[in-house]
Amino acid sequence: MRLQVMTPEKTFFSGEASNLMINAEKGQLTILDQHADLITLVKPGLLQIKTTQSTLKFEVSDGVLRVDENRCAVLAGSVKPV
To answer: What is the per-residue pLDDT for 14?
Structure first.
């Protein structure tokens, strides 16, 4: 899936990911390739991205997650690499 992780000021990740784990409004979510369309609030915590070559970790604040047509976007108030 195509993934973007950003704040209003900066894009922290933009590329292909095989899976994404994030704290959402109703608990932890794992988003895989071809996931159903979804919009939910993001809770502060760990965001983990798996690509074909590595695993990336970020600490994110409150925000929004949108999954639409195999594209995923995380917009958070702050993002910090871990």
So the answer is: 97
Contact 41, 64 (CB under 8 A): yes
Of 33, 24, 26, residue with least CA distance to 3: 33
- Tokens found for residue 2: 């195509």
Cα gap 43→3, rounded to integer Å: 18
Looking from the CA of 70 toward its CB, the CA atoms found within 13 Å total 6
Per-residue pLDDT of 25-34, as tens digits, reads 989 999 999 9
Which token pair is 77? Answer: 């108030």
Reported pTM: 0.92
Closest CA to 43 of 16, 72, 23: 23
Q: How would you classify the pairing of strands 2-6 and 71-76?
A: parallel
In eight-state DSSP terms, residue 36 is P
